[in-house]
Amino acid sequence: MKNFKIFALLIISLSIILNCCTVKSKYPINKKETKKPNRYDFIDNYIKNMTLEEKIGQMFMPAVYYDGDKTQLEKYIKMIKDYKLGGVILFPESLDTAQLVNLTYTIQNASKIPLFISTDQEGGLVYRLKDGTKLPGNMAIGATRSTDLAYKNGQVVGSELKAVGINWNLAPVADVNSNPANPIIGIRSFGGFPDLVSRMTVAYMKGEQSQNIATCLKHFPGHGDVNIDSHLGLGIVNKSIDQLEKNELKPFSDAIKAGADAVMSAHLSFPALDDTKIEVKTSDGTIKKITIPATLSQKILTGVLREKLGFKGVIITDAMNMRAISDNFNPIDATIRAIKAGADIVLMPVDLQGSYDELLKQVKNGSISEYRIDQSVKRILSLKNKIGILNRPTINLEKAIDMATKILSSNTNKAIERETAQKAITLVRDNKHIIPLKNISPPKKILVVAGNKVRIDQYIAQIRKYYPYHIDTLVVDDAVLNSNKELSNTTKAAINGADIIIIGTVDITEKDNQIVKILNNYGREKIIILIAIKNPYDIMYYPNAETYLVQYGWNRANYEAVVDVIFGGIKPTGRLPVNIPGC
């Protein structure tokens, strides 16, 4: 009996010990703990296997202008291989869909490390796909006030770019266009109100990202309140930090919080953010002092964008061949300054070979640390990995061309183009309540006036759906409409003979102009309908207009939609996305 008790105690003790071991077996002491790999481990390992030359090549993105010339293509392939490039920007306006897919397929396969193949398909004024859907543009989207349409426009652009092998769109424009005299942004912006621009920027960006392509906010810290085109010279934004935070910076800040992939720098000076003065020698030999532009400013790219706004993605410069930079800086010096300021990618360097060689030299001699280069490369490769190109996907060229042909300008995409244009049309003023025109038939005569025949033909094609009779037309050059020059006798006779005059204007900037004179001389006896084809600010220069509409662009859908409003096919629902005194 005593032995049985001892045996029983041994069994119980053994069970307890085994139980304890079972619990502890969740954390085995005789095996190494395994850590689940993450994408950063993958990127770190990728970088470890890259040469310094390959790393530096990732930081350059020159342009490819290709029109189908095989010799030209061979030159670009050699460039990609020689400099081990991280990406290129395409300007493929002359290529049809099959040619473009062939191009992206060929250059992608020329690179050891998969390329960013980028373009700037903004919509509206800036289009790169010959066969793509001609969306009305950002300010038209802003006029709809619809984040749903902003998202859908982004989806359309993203789907069409991806279909042709372009994996990075340098858009959307996040600038708040608060300056009516801005010569370069204008309707490329969603509008002049920071909250509106923020909402539309984020929605559009998300739409693009849904198609698994990279996006890019531009032009940081904001290009909306200048009166100079940075393609032509260096502009200055003289605003306080408080003003910049409430206006220019807001869309960037909100989009960064929403997951922005990349940010493009502006070639503009912002003294409130960095008032550093630099002595430069211009092309004519003149020595002058300028305030450092944002693209070359560490205080702005690193201090504001990285540290203050917490941006962890890719920073890319605007094109370095723009005169705001090229007129004031040696091209190699500009490249090095941009990288030291915090840029990850130099877009369209003026001297690719010189810039590449100098950056390589400075890393080798310790002027720039390899760690600094690795940080940029890590961001670049992380974005490539995010959009799924780093593990090069297999592509069947024939199937890719067939699919792209079906996607570009598909009925679904064109429906979004049409809906956006229609919901954007803004009836700013209709003092005599003539819109929509009713019971218009002969002997009533319609005269359409615009700056060129292409615009007139766009109007006429749609007007005929409502008025299938003879329509008089008159081409009056934009420069003449925007001047106080005397109108020709032919022009006067055409105006005298018309009952309804529809005039499309583009960028009226002179107070003493022909529109004012026409309104003063004929406005009481005739119906005169003014349409701002492009910027909505034209009415500031003919404030005596009784009827004024804005169509926000010169793509076909814009023309069709404004005619539909004038003749009652649709109701105008758009609202001005910018502030215009008196409207």
Automatic annotation (TrEMBL):
Asked if Nucleus is a keyword of the record, the answer is: no
Question: Mind listing the GO biological process terms from this record?
Answer: carbohydrate metabolic process; peptidoglycan turnover
Keyword vocabulary terms for this entry = Glycosidase, Hydrolase, Signal
Q: Please give the PANTHER family that the UniProt record associates with this protein.
A: BETA-HEXOSAMINIDASE, BETA-HEXOSAMINIDASE-RELATED
One Gene Ontology term of the molecular function aspect = beta-N-acetylhexosaminidase activity
Family, similarity comment: Belongs to the glycosyl hydrolase 3 family.
Matching entries from PROSITE patterns are given as: GLYCOSYL_HYDROL_F3
Q: InterPro entries from the xrefs?
A: GH, Glyco_hydro_3_AS, Glyco_hydro_3_C, Glyco_hydro_3_C_sf, Glyco_hydro_3_N, Glyco_hydro_3_N_sf, NagZ_Beta-hexosaminidase
Signal sequence annotation: 1-20
Boundaries of each Glycoside hydrolase family 3 C-terminal domain copy?
425-581
Keyword presence, Hydrolase? yes
Source organism per entry reads Caldanaerobius fijiensis DSM 17918
Q: Which residues form the Glycoside hydrolase family 3 N-terminal domain?
A: 51-383
* UniProt protein name: beta-N-acetylhexosaminidase
Reactions catalysed, semicolon-separated, are: Hydrolysis of terminal non-reducing N-acetyl-D-hexosamine residues in N-acetyl-beta-D-hexosaminides
